[in-house]
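The freezer alarm interrupted the setup, so I double-checked each line after restarting. Inputs confirmed:
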Amino acid sequence: MRKKYDYCIYIGRFQPFHLGHLQTVRIALEEASELIIVIGSHRTAPNIKNPWTSSQREQMIRLTLKDEPELLERIHFAPVRDQLYSDNLWVADIQQKVLAIAGDESAIAIIGHRKDESSYYLDSFPQWSYIETGNYRDIHSTDIRAAYLSRAPEASYYDKLPVGVQVSLSTFQSEARFAELCAEYDFIQQNKKAWSVAPYPPTFVTVDAVVVQSGHVLIVRRKSRYGSGLYALPGGFVDQDETLLEGMLRELKEETGLKVPMPVLRGSIVDSHVFDNPSRSLRGRTITHAYFIQLKAGKLPPVKGGDDADKALWMSLADLYIHEDLFFEDHFAIVLHFVSRV
Ligand code: NAD
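Predicted 3D structure, all chains:
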């Protein structure tokens, strides 16, 4: 029988895919001939909010439906990157991916559940009908991740997961990345607890340096527990007795040992910008002031990791794109903000 819609669009992070998501997939396939699952936060570095890559998440969904090939063959997967500082770019990416699969003459509906303010994006596609699914058993991925990463008994969350996802989560426990994420989870919980006695939730101020020379960006590799091993911009928290500019130059010298005289560094600052997306850091509300330092073309000055960085390196812009999914917080987006202008 002909379905009401040609395509349903289902956007989500699916970290992990749970029985509430599965229920929506089933409703979507009742309503439409085909389903496009938009897997969000594609190429985000693994962290406690996004532990699994988009291909691992697609695999979880495929495993869940492996005994129902007639459903699986009606599903398309479209991984989509976050654009933390431009909802328009994010919407445009989804529009393009849907157009490429569905063409421009199909009857399309977006399906989802307006669970809270974070569901605002469901209103960004007025050209499509909307199907509200309602809430299924009050299941939340956040609770499942909390139980999983705090090593709670499986019985406390397995009843919220399809069997295929239970298997995937169990397999992932033997990977080194799982232990790192558990350590990061504990660290963030302790950090939150330490700040819980403050009279107001804290807002942290940080600074970052985006130093570019001859098609290369100065990058460090983090060694602190939070985001350990990820690439980041040199930077950190501002001290009580320094200006933002002084803090940025201090962190830059401490973390990279950059052999460029201070007056040259100061004179090479060509731009600065505040990055303030409320969800940019999992440690808590953190606003960063980034400075763009464009050095004259020539031989790259020597650098050496120090302080919170176990390594400092000049990364070519080509490598920057290749390693997008190894960048801490929004640092990849910060670099792109500046290098796309000059
Ligand atoms: P999610 O996996 O939490 O939820 C996906 C969908 O399932 C939502 O509609 C949600 O309401 C629904 N759902 C969850 N639990 C349910 C339950 N128990 N019963 C019924 N429905 C349930 O994913 P999400 O965080 O909403 O995904 C949004 C994605 O879009 C993210 O990747 C986010 O980063 C991305 N996004 C990006 C931008 C940008 O980059 N500018 C803007 C908005 C959203």
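Quick read of the result. The chain has a mean pLDDT of 96.
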